[in-house]
Model the fold of this input.
Amino acid sequence: MIGIKGLGLYMPDAVIPIEELLPTLNEDQKKRIGVQHSMLEEQYTATEMAVEASKRAIEKANIDPLEIDLILSCQAGLPDYLVWQTAGKIQEDLNAKHAGFIDVYQGCCSFIAGMRMARNTLLAEENIRNILVCSGEKWEHVIENRVVGGYVFSDGASAVLMSRGESNNIVKGFGVTGRGDYGNISKMKTGRIDGLKGDNPGDKYYNITGDNPEGLEELKTTNLQNYLDTANKALKDASCTMEDIDFVILPNGRLDFTNKLIQAFGIEHDKTNYKYIATTGDISSADAMVNYQRLLEDGSLQKNQKVLILSQGAGMTWASTILQV
Done:
């Protein structure tokens, strides 16, 4: 049995209203997007936010950082430095010097991918007892105006401490779907192919762009089905059906698409994280466990309930996991 021994999150206090991010929006457009503001971190880097969330997860797990065997950093956005291991800095700042560390990347699905890797490692390697999975996201210099396609991106971080033999927040199953042919829908030109050229590459160099308009149009018709397919894979892995699911956690995207997801899964709004989306925005990889922890803390989730958690990442992938509270 693999479960989550401790959870931690970090949420910035400052916000930028949607009216400042997109001043030309009309009221109908605001309603369809539904997100009121972007959360803005003014002090910490993405890695430092991940460290803060991790400290809280470790404290709740009631273990010493020296007992951590592996750290998986799952950031989706641009790291603090290139050719650098975020997980290594987290190990240093936590004084978890006995832990190995790995950076995991699968876009906004990275956190669920990290949890899957953690579960499989705990099952396969007897000498591994505690794995920290964490992510911090900061969108300054990464997304122009912090908005892509009506998705309002926010800063924040989450962390979980996963252990063998833990009877709380039991990891029941995972699912993943990949469409590599959608890869160029969203990308950042910081790699070897489109390296920096000239003395002044311009401010947009680090912004996310895309050059697959045909794929983008097709995605509009296949997106919902990919979510459903990915959920079914997790249900199969967990040996349960949708009737066994008590709660569904969706990405903090725009509300018009969230409503379509809720309808497609045949669930009620109050059995999702819908109430938090408008005041949170999309925290990318950190979304999944930020929402899970907030719903635990406000009493929405009860012991032994099963929760289906969904995510979607550039590249393009869909990932899901099922937890038993």
Summary: The chain has a mean pLDDT of 91. The two ends are 13 Å apart (CA to CA). The longest strand covers residues 2-10. The chain has two domains: 2-166, 173-324.
